[in-house]
Structure formats: structure tokens, C-alpha cells
Amino acid sequence: MSRSVVALPLTFLIAICLTLTLTTPVEELSATKSRAIDKTKRQAAASTSDNKDYAAALRLSILFYYAQRSGKLPSDNPIPWRSDSALSDCVQGGWYDAGDHVKFGYPMAGALTMLLWGMDRFKQGYVDANQLDSMYDTVKWGLDYIVKAWDPNTQQLVIQVGGGDIDHTFWGRPEDMTMDRPCVKIGPNAPGSDVAGETVAALAAGAIVFKDKDPSYSALLLRTARSLYSFAKTHRGKFSDNPTVTGTFWYYGSNNEKDEMCVGAMWMYKATQEAQYLTDAKANHESTLSDEWSWLDHTFACQLMLYEETKEDSYKTEVSNFLRSWQPGGKRIYTPCGMAWGNVTYWGSARHVSNVAFGALVAAEDGIDATVNRKWAAEQINFLLGDNNHDGGCFSYEIGYGQKYPLRPHHRAASCPSPPATCSEAVHLHTDEASPQVLYGGLVGGPIANGGYNDSREDYVHNEVALDYNSGFHSALAGLTELKAKQAIPVTESKCPCNQAFSGDHSVIIG
Fold first, then answer.
1. Is 133 an active-site residue?
2. Of 410, 411, 428, 462, catalytic
3. Three-class SS string for 268-333?
4. pLDDT digits over 3-49, tens only?
């Protein structure tokens, strides 16, 4: 299956070229530093997972999702620099997508599905981290939003609130927004079975996760999922083909919908055990070896779920081939310190490898190359938590973890000083000053192929954060927290081991 991002405007492509120019000196510097690493540091450590506090990283990641909340916030909001915002939206609540303030339904649903999948498979990890209640609260915020976004009477689903181009002219706090926030919908005359299918997946996964916790809420999620799935199955088509969507410039395009319809059907089957959903999933399955698992491409997720439910060897082979393509000897190159990297991962490299790491942990639970997949997944997450040589080593790409981490993420709200001080693009985007608000738990875009990374607020390619950037990373952390408590993580290695134990400001970590 071939997938590509929606066509980008000229100004956007120019921005990418400027980003490449800006980061070249960093790349060269990083490459030089990499060659100069002391040989003793490049020897494999006994087990680099021993000093990683996955539970602390997981707790921080929950804070990131709290910081992204839109709408009227509860009295126990743990983010002191966030308050009520976007109360006039056509659908209140949900999460802001990234460093901006648009609510994009497609990547939001994909991120929510991945978070819920991690809760379903690695619930004990949240118990071990003392974060189960906080995680229920986190995912319910997203689920409540997509329940409200679907109107079964009009058969319309709100898939976007806010316009990308309009939103990107504003640099400031979400609480201070005054621009128009258009409401984009799909419906019988404007289908979008890709975004609808992924939203079904999130709802059905939520129904499973809340089945014992809150049976009545679980039933509501399942009813909503059934209704939306029926709509999606009846009205097939890509949402980004709709002029009502392209007219507002959708930043997350799609050129296929079979993968989302497969994943939606599989979660419905898991939630109901009704055979028709499994039949539908098989009809939408594709055997393609994808380059990624992301908001754009859920082919691997479809293959993995079909194997879990059928145990058929053909699906197992597809899962294994995908994971091996990311592991040594596969299709990916590796940074000097050992992070898997490919051309598709240039934008948000940390996100891409984290998603695959989570997939490897799930596959291991399913009995697929358990030792190899767990070891590889742990080593990739360890890289992001400090097993690298950036800034002298022990640099975490998750904000707030350890002593070295990004100080200037591309994030409007975090860049703004506390009121009543004003916030503007001229003063707070184009500056080398550290963000006045710490965006705890946010996973930034990540390094390039030679390990180079630029902690610049202007660099939205490598230093922005997003809902989907954290989701696979978050669920991988839950898995590793559970496995570490069981002493079930294989011995891990690194070319650039960080031997420092976790040290951070635990007062900011919830729980």
C-alpha cells in the first residue's frame, strides 16, 4: 500500500528547506562529537535499562496530555500555566494537536487508540507507576470529546476545530485566542471513512478499557462506536478528498482508508466478539510492508491485531517482517548512538521509533520473537531517555526527564510568560531563551540521521511536540514499567550508555 502526505503549499516547503539549512551546522558538530566519543563509553554496558526510571517518564508523559487540554478545565488541573480556553468551539474539550491550537480529529483519534491499546495490554505498568487513576482521567478527556463530536441523528462527525493557516498566524496562549475557529465535519455527502474508522477504533478500545472501571460509560462508548462504524462502512472515502476539508487546509492528509477501517473493525471485534467485524477487517487487510506506523499508516496495526485474534501464520509473518525492517540488518540506518532512523522518520524521528518500539513490545506479548523485540524496544526508548551523546551525553528527548532535556520546544503556550505579561511571535518565538513554562513530559521531534539535534523553538521539524509524538512512547513506557517490575527486560546495550540514575524534580510529577 502506498501512502503519501497531502500536498503542501510552497511556503511550507520553503520552511522545510530553511530548517535543513539551519540544522546543518548542528549535524556537522554532532557528527564530529560522535567520532570523538571515548572508546570506553562506546563499549556495551551490562544493562542500560537498569538505571532508567520508566515509571517516572510515564508520569511525566501524563502531564503532557494535561497541558494539551482544551475547554473548561477541572479544579484539580495540575498545570498551573493552563486554564479554560476555546469555550466557544463547536465541540468543547479534547486536546490541542501540537505546539499550535487546532484540534485535528484524525491524529487525535490515532493517538488515543495507541494510548488505550497500551492501557489494555500493559495495565499493570500503570499500577506499578501508581498512575492508573490518572491515566483513566487522561484518556476519558479525549474519549468524551469524540463522543460529543459524533451526531448519530445528522450522521455527522466533527473532524477539525480551528483552521491550520488561521491558527498559525497567532503565537500566544490558547486562553487568549480570538481568531475564527472553523468547524469541519464529515457526513453522508462528505465521507471520511479513514478518520471515522480510526475514531471507531478509539471508542471501541475505550469501551474495553472502561468495561470494569465504569460499565455504563463503556456501554456509551460502544454504542457510539457501533453507530459511527455503520456510517463509515456505508459512506466510504477519504476525508481529505472533500473540498470542505481542503478548503481549510488540512495538515494531516490521507490517501487510503482501508487500514483505518481494518483497525476500527478489529477493535469492534475485540469489544463485541461479533464475527462480522472480523470478516470486515480481513476484507480491508493489506499485506503491504509499510515504512511506518503512525497517524498516516495503520497497516501494521491491522496485521498485528489480525494475528492476535486468528493466530494465522501469514499475519505473523507480516508483523515479523515489519519489525525486522526496523531492527539491525533491516531497512533502517542507525544514528551513531543506535537509534533506528529512515527517510520517512525525518519529521518526528523520536515519534516513529517509539511507535515501532511499542509495537515490538505488543508483538513480544503475543509470542513473536519476545527476547529480540523486548531488547530492541527497550534500547530505542533508552536512547530517547539518555543513551546518546548529545550535549555531552545523557540527554533526554522527553522534557523534564533527567538533568538535560529540551528547553525550547516549539510550543506556543509553554513559550509565553505568565499573565499579565503579553506573548507574541516576535518576542517569544524568535528567541534563544528557555521557555518560561516547562512542558513536562513532551517528547520532541528528535534527532536526524547522524544524531544531530537543534534545541530551537523555530525548528518545528525536530523540536515540536504533538499528541501522536507521545502516544507510542507513552505506551512503550507503560510496557517497560511493567516488564521492569517483573525483571523481564532482557539485558540491553548501548554505544553511548548513560550511567546516571534518574534525577528530576519529583515535586512536579503527579501521583
1. no
2. 410
3. HHHHHCCHHHHHHHHHHCCCCCCCCCCCCCCHHHHHHHHHHHHCCHHHHHHHHHHHHHHCCCCCCE
4. 333 333 333 333 333 333 333 333 333 333 333 334 334 334 458 89
